[in-house]
Amino acid sequence: MDRLATHVIATAVLTAALAAVPTAMANPSTDPGSTASKPSAVTTHSSTSAPPSSDPAATSTSAHVQPVPCADVRQIGGTSYARWHGIIAFSVKQFYSPGCRAVYGYAFPWLQFRRLRVHYDLGMGVFDATHDAIDGARTFLGGAGGPDFWSSPVTVPAGACTEGLAHVFYPDTETDTFTTKVCR
What we know:
The chain is mainly β. The chain is 12% helix and 35% strand.
């Protein structure tokens, strides 16, 4: 399936999921207590980087930070970046936990984006490229639950290839951002 068809399916699935969540739960994700410095426009991450707290934009004192799903979680594959009007808005990654035997999609809004106080909705998941399926999908209206966004855990069968997937609804556009493909 090509990227356009994947985008159409991802949009339909995530739009349906967003419609099912009460909008009363929407709270903007801002972190006025953040001590992170403004990240540079281009940042690279190695495929063996530590959990998200090592992200240059991830230093946070917010009480809303989602905990790391499993203690042994580690990044697999490369990091991708969701952009909005020329700035990096999100880092998008894929993680694996040997102990939990699960793959997770992950996204983190950069401080430069959070400071703009842009309203956004986010769909987070793991794209199974082998079976053309989105697994572990979760939705976050108005950035509620951030700034760390994790998909639900996904068990991946041997031989399957997956990508972390973030579908962001900005005020004036929407976008899919996939990480690099990792095959098990």
